[in-house]
Amino acid sequence: xxxxxxxxxxxxxxxxxxxxxTGVGAANANARYPHSVPTSTRIHAPNHVxxxxxxxxxxxxxxxxxxxxxxxxVRIVRGNGGYKWxxxxxxxxxxxxxRSTKLHPRGxxxxxxxxxxxxxxxxxxxxxxxxxxxxxxx
Length: 138
Prior knowledge:
- The chain is an alpha+beta fold.
- It folds into two domains: 2-31; 36-135, SOR catalytic domain (Immunoglobulin-like).
- The chain is 20% helix and 41% strand.
- The chain is built from two helices and eight strands; from the N terminus they run ααββββββββ.
- β4 and β5 form a beta hairpin.
- The protein is rod-shaped and about 95 Å long.
- 18% of the residues are buried.
């Protein structure tokens, strides 16, 4: 009789432990719904730059109180042609900065920063655009 009762108690304890440690957590929910958490991409760049100088563009991706992980691609293109610069860096939750080559033609330039989430991750892709001018005086 003691063996039956102790076996029953052991079975109930194992069943209780399995229920307690296999709950539905955030990791399980993310695996079922990939690309479901929205992100926001911000570009930090000056409004004016002198011709024949480089520009420093920093990108920050936010998503509530989490740190998204993936890649950030920055494209700088002159509106009338004559200049195109593209770079990609890994993003691990902190601001990523890029330094372009020298800007030769004067005029308006477009900046596009695109965040691409890792495949199968919970974060959505996002992008943002900004403009600056290359002038003689900066």
